[in-house]
Design a protein that fits this description.
By secondary structure, this protein is an alpha/beta fold. It is built from nine helices and 14 strands. The protein has a seven-stranded mixed sheet, with helices on both faces. Helix 1 crosses helix 5 (82-95), helix 6 (106-115) runs parallel beside helix 7 (136-146) and helix 7 crosses helix 9 (217-226). The chain is globular, with a radius of gyration of 18 Å.
Length: 277
């Protein structure tokens, strides 16, 4: 069943990514001009990546992967979406930043890469990555398996509390995950469009269904510890980077979106964990 669910998500992501890319036509030019899509939280936790091997899991269209490569890393991005990986390879060429990209389900790729002897100094994932993973402990074990001794896992992710809310800050979904995940008939949204100010994007419907998997903070921390990783950093953040989940959130010049007064809830979390040397 998880493989079937992931394949449903692959189709939904292919459709959604094609839509998202219509809002991102200036990416290559921005990269050539030295701009980066990375936020301070990621840059700080990644640290100095010059000359280091970094794998970006669920890299989407590769924008952040290329931002890491521009910092001097030997970067590899892995994503389940065919459309996203094709776009990432084009962006790497057009933006003039070298990186590699592979199309794969990360739950298949991670143990296969470990068996091949591939090792990385940093495993990185961010922003809407974990909710597509049907088996979070397996994902964490896989991340630990491809880390070199002393290597670090860095995750910056939307807070699971956000997934419980609907517009109007109404609590409408369970915090703890349901067995088998939650199927959404409307598929992955055009969140890129409505965050960019395209009001019509909120009414766009993806014809390909998707399945999300809710993971509590306890699930995340327990999975990291269960994989033998040593947690060095954990924090909760009161803003959303690059995403406006609710219309009444206010954006700022740093591409951060803040809840209205009285709704100051945790919107993201960040985690860094090290594999013992």
């Amino acid at each position: 069943m998880p493989d079937q669910q992931h394949e449903l998500n692959r189709a939904s992501w292919n459709t959604a990514t094609s839509r998202h890319l219509t809002h991102k036509r200036d990416l290559a030019a921005r990269l050539r001009d030295g701009e980066s899509n990375l936020f301070p939280e990621e840059v700080e936790l990644l640290g100095d990546v010059r000359g280091k091997r970094v794998v970006h899991l669920q890299c989407n269209d590769g924008t952040d992967t290329l931002g890491i490569a521009a910092l001097g890393a030997d970067a590899l991005g892995v994503d389940i979406s065919d459309v996203a990986v094709e776009a990432a390879r084009r962006l790497s060429e057009d933006g003039g930043i070298a990186a590699r990209f592979e199309r794969a389900d990360v739950l298949d790729w991670l143990p296969a890469a470990a068996a091949r002897g591939e090792r990385f100094d940093v495993v990185f994932a961010s922003y809407g990555a974990l909710c597509w993973i049907s088996d979070l402990p397996a994902w964490m074990r896989g991340a630990a398996g491809v880390l070199a001794p002393g290597g670090r896992l860095v995750v910056v992710e939307f807070h699971p509390l956000v997934s419980t809310l609907e517009e109007g800050w109404k609590l409408d979904h369970p915090y703890f995950g349901r067995p088998g995940g939650q199927t959404w008939q409307e598929g992955i949204e055009d969140y890129v469009g409505y965050t960019a100010g395209d009001a019509a994007s909120r009414s766009w419907t993806n014809p390909d269904v998707c399945v999300e998997f809710q993971h509590s903070l306890g699930d995340v921390l327990s999975a990291a510890l269960g994989a033998g990783l040593l947690i060095e950093h954990f924090d909760e953040h009161r803003h959303c980077n690059g995403w406006q989940p609710f219309p009444d959130m206010t954006g700022d010049e740093q591409r951060r979106f803040h809840p209205p007064t009285g709704k100051e809830l945790p919107m993201m979390f960040s985690l860094a964990a090290r594999k013992p040397a």
